[in-house]
Amino acid sequence: EIVPALNLAVCWDIFFIFKYTVEDNQQVTLMNLISWWNLNDCAPGLSAEFIQKFYCSILPISSTRPFVCLGSYLAGLIEGDGTIIVPSSQRSLSAGKGKLNYPSIQIVFHAKDFPLVAILARIIEHGSIFKKKQSAAYIYTINNLQGLIILVQLINGKIRGPKINQLNKVIDYLKNKSPDLNLEKLPLDTSPLQNNSWLAGFIEAEGSFQIRTSLTTKEPRLGISFELSQGRKTRHGYSSLGLMVMIASFLGVKVNLIREERKYPQYRVRTSSITTNKILHDYLEKYPLYGSKNLDYKDWAKILFYFEQKSQWKHVDEISKIKSQMNQYRTVFRWDHLV
């Protein structure tokens, strides 16, 4: 029951096998599979029968498998690279009555993480997946009433940063639409980061596992690190510093300001020592990643072991080979961790 490796030289457009059932308000309420293509030319072994089994059969509607602490993971994803949009007015200012405006929650995924977003959409059972124009990314959007209720119930009380302000506005909207809805505004999650999968979701969105191999310089160097960056302010003007300080404190590092000269400066957290990398490693062994970064993490963890054993120079050729196939250089993917 292992998903075949996917060669991402393939255009994911041919893997877009959904149709959306749209009601009068034009909000997506159901996602159905409608057709299958012969993918043998681009993804050998990825048959229609396999896709159907992977996407439909292995996940009962009530299941959140394989996710640990799904609500916290989703909250981390949204705070890392998501947007909570609440329109300022119920109708647009166009002629006549105007078009109805609806709140929406959007999460951006790299194109190579399509299997992950497909599984999340299967679990939540609401929303739409769109290819972002002129970008290697998909946007998962939920904007119908029932879908918003489900997602808000999952992440309510799991948010750790300034996006709680927008979430509370969505809760106000939902309670206005459904007065009998039992949904209270819960405070920020201030529990230790090691208690749930929020950080895993945040890393899924913004983290980067890095290996340094400077072998042709006068003093050859090997290094292993992890970086996590976030814009200094959210689109609504709130600072992300508190969030980044919390992460830095957990990892035993400091927050640095980068790209100060650019229009959108960022905060960065970086681990580079065995001690700080080990803190991250131990956390991700308990609360894993589920997108393609899971593969980068596994490669990174293997190299970290060599550093812990002080044997990295004995394995320099292997480390160089692993690095050459990580991150943007990865072309073959396995998704058995989603099964």
UniProtKB/TrEMBL annotation:
Residue ranges crossing the lipid bilayer per the database entry: 238-258
Keyword Membrane listed: yes
InterPro entries: Homing_endonucl, LAGLIDADG_dom, LAGLIDADG_Endonuclease
Alphabetical list of Gene3D superfamilies matching this protein: Homing endonucleases (3.10.28.10)
GO molecular function, one term: endonuclease activity
Keywords of the record: Endonuclease, Hydrolase, Membrane, Mitochondrion, Nuclease, Transmembrane, Transmembrane helix
Entry keyword annotation includes Chloroplast: no
GO cellular component, one term: mitochondrion
Positions of the Homing endonuclease LAGLIDADG domain: 74-171, 199-303
Task performed by this protein: Mitochondrial DNA endonuclease involved in intron homing.
Name the record gives this protein: LAGLIDADG endonuclease
Organism in which the protein naturally occurs: Lyophyllum shimeji (Hon-shimeji)
Lineage, uppermost ranks: Eukaryota, Fungi, Dikarya, Basidiomycota, Agaricomycotina
Gene name of the record: orf339
